[in-house]
Amino acid sequence: MAQLALSGLLDRLYDMSPTAADWRPFLSAVGDAFRSHAVAFHSHDVLHQQGVIDKSVGVDTDLAVRFKNLAHEHPWYIHGGEQLFREGLADDKGLLPPRALYSSRFYSEVLKPLGIEHGMALLLRHDGLSQMTVLSINRQSKEGYFKPAERQQAQSLLPHLRTAYLLQQRLGWMETLARTFRASLDRLEDGVIILDRRGVIRFANTSAERLEARAIYQRSLDGRLSLPTRAQSNQLHAYVRTASIACPQPFSMRVHDPVGRWQASLKACPIDQVADAQWGEPDAGIMLFISETQTCVLSNHRAHWQELWGFTSAEACLAQRLAAGNSLQEAAEDSSVSLNTVRTHLRALFAKTNTRRQSDLVRVLILSRG
After folding, report:
1. pTM
2. pLDDT value at 174 more than 60
3. N or C: which end of the chain has fewer CB within 10 A?
4. CA separation for the pair 155, 90 (Å, rounded)
């Protein structure tokens, strides 16, 4: 193989995206360069007596299944595994007599149907002799054994191929880990948002998206999270800036709407030290947990309570605030009425729900939500 062909393979190798690599063009180019009609990444697991063809050209699905069941009987692996482990590269020349190859089940069920008579393997990763991942380059009888010059070119390609393959595997694993992690967050009832170190939203779970739709928070034009008032946004952004240069303690705040009504509770935690290695989130800096106040959550129950017990609109509003954990004084201030008026409404609630204490009233309200 000419030096120009090796240069072309390296160009194809490094032009691939490391996170979503399509190896087929590269494998086809390897086949052209080495006069090979079947090129594949595959692994051997001796302990479990199986193998897997990961990516390939020139290998159909049925033969890939046969390979999985017969990989531990691969004669080239059995006779050349130690050389492959020791040198990082091995071919079939001199491994075993042709008669021994042709009498093996692996040859008759895998190699022969593919028209493979000769092969060369490049070791990509291993866990000792018991587990290896290789790139195999296979060709027909008419192409003959691999020549010393071809082995030398493959040896030159090997370190680049190994680096690219392991990087793609690592990034692919991280991507899978991130998807799994985010799917887990989607099952949470509270809103969860991942911010990068600049405060830009990188992920919001389903609950958080619902909160955004209700204007609990918004995305600015630059992608950063903003809260209903500038003062609240500045407070959060200041924490994000601090977290980018230090590791502060978790931060909590109440989120109020522009007229001052408490809408949600927010907690921010720095996560950059664990997000990359454990969750596959290399850009993550802060995780936010947002939970709506019960005042918002219970707002849809007022009509039900009015129908059930005949509450007036003012009484239903007080019932909602009490069920959310507000005191009578807070309910009076939020409703802009006197404390005596609130107490009058409370006595009406006691009478209509057949309760005598505020704690009993709250329990009845919560258990009777529609």
Report:
1. 0.50
2. no
3. C
4. 10
Which amino acid, residue 89?
Answer: L
- Residue 144's domain is classified under what CATH number? 3.30.450.40
Residue 288 three-state SS: strand
Give the up-direction half-sphere exposure of residue 21: CA atoms within 13 A in the CB hemisphere. 24
Gyration radius (Cα) of the chain, Å: 33
- Closest to 63 in 3D by CA, of 27, 26, 28, 113: 113
For residue 97, is it within any domain? yes
Closest among 40, 60, 57, 61 to 133, alpha carbons compared: 40
Residue 32 lies in a domain: yes
> What tens digit of pLDDT does each residue of 39-94 get?
999 888 766 677 888 888 998 888 888 888 888 889 998 898 899 988 999 999 99
Q: What is the C-alpha separation between 53 and 41, in angstroms, rounded?
A: 6
Do 279 and 185 form a contact (C-beta atoms < 8 A)? Answer: no
How high is the pLDDT of residue 28?
Answer: 92
Phi-psi region of 132 (alpha: psi -120 to 50; beta: other; left: phi over 0): beta
Q: Three-class SS of residue 269?
A: strand
Question: Cα separation of 331 and 315, whole Å?
Answer: 11
Tokens describing residue 22 = 């399509």
Q: Which of 128, 157, 178 is the last residue of a domain?
A: 178
pLDDT in tens, 217-244: 998 888 899 999 888 899 999 998 887 6
d(CA 226, CA 218): 5
Confidence of residue 141 (pLDDT cuts 50, 70, 90): very high
